[in-house]
Q: What sequence folds into this?
């Protein structure tokens, strides 16, 4: 389908202190290939006339199924040795939203978030209740062992030994816990469909060695995810507590709607507020005209975009993904 209107998909796979020197060529290629597969999946939906919501789900499911990212299959472990997953999604046309948090058996949390949005009267479900609901909706339920990866387990053991908590996953070439070698591997997508509608979604495994049922910004509408046709679609990644405290996603969208701030500037303003209280990370933003930005105040962010021309563009380090 091509009615002349713009389509665009933008994704991220996490931001952080991604080291050029430690990211091997093979590892970099693996990430770019996974980003390409995610973009292609979402683009196929958009090109065939599908909705921005469905495109966001398709793109995120690919990353949830990849062990490279801290979402779904590649999620990090809590202090208790569990994988606890969070996700959210929002429809910019209706401002309907859905989210789940602290789940351990739902293969694709983004699908469960969508089910909450479309099949319930609620916005967020957590824990066992969310899992029961997902099963009732016929979503794929797995043994928690499905989410296990050796790399993440090794990270947990190192984090426990050093009595510290890690933000998502560490450098892509090893499992060291150097303070300057962390990476936030939350995944997200924002999309614009042929009908001019925006959508945003975010999915994560949270923090390595987290305790006490901690939930970050990813499943919180207005913090990690937001979409409104009158402003922006936003997905965030980074130090979740600071993104919550600054209402990062809504903050960025409000600058567009109320002040008509250029989108890259709005994202940078939000990241500056986050930095001022000790946080960092990145944002992908997209407006209803197809303008987009991928901004971060860390060393790098896995990200990519695709539009009407069907050309995949991916980036990791500053200046690689132009807009």
A:
């Amino acid at each position: 389908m091509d009615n002349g209107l713009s389509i665009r998909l933008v994704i991220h796979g996490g931001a952080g202190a991604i080291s050029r020197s430690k990211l091997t060529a093979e590892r970099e290629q693996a990430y770019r290939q996974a980003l390409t597969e995610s973009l292609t999946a979402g683009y196929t939906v958009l090109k065939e006339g599908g909705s921005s919501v469905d495109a966001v789900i398709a793109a995120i499911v690919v990353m949830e199924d990849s062990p490279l990212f801290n979402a779904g299959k590649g999620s990090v472990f809590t202090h208790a040795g569990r994988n606890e997953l969070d996700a959210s999604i929002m429809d910019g046309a209706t401002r309907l939203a859905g989210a789940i948090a602290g789940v351990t058996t739902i293969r694709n949390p983004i699908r469960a978030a969508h089910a909450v949005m479309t099949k319930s009267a609620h916005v967020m479900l957590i824990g066992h209740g969310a899992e029961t609901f997902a099963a009732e909706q016929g979503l794929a339920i797995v043994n928690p062992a499905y989410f296990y990866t050796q790399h993440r387990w090794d990270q947990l053991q190192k984090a426990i030994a050093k009595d510290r908590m890690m933000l998502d996953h560490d450098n892509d070439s090893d499992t060291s816990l150097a303070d300057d070698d962390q990476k936030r591997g939350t995944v997200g997508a924002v999309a614009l469909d042929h009908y001019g509608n925006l959508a945003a979604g975010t999915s994560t495994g949270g923090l390595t060695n987290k305790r006490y049922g901690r939930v970050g910004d990813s499943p919180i509408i207005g913090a990690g995810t937001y979409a409104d046709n009158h402003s922006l679609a936003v997905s965030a990644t980074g130090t979740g507590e600071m993104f919550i405290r600054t209402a990062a996603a809504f903050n960025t969208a409000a600058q567009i709607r109320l002040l008509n701030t250029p989108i890259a500037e709005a994202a940078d303003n939000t990241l500056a507020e986050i930095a001022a209280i000790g946080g960092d990370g990145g944002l992908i933003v997209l407006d209803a005209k197809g303008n987009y930005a991928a901004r971060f105040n860390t060393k790098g962010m896995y990200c990519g975009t695709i539009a009407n021309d069907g050309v995949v563009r991916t980036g990791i380090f500053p200046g690689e993904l132009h807009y």
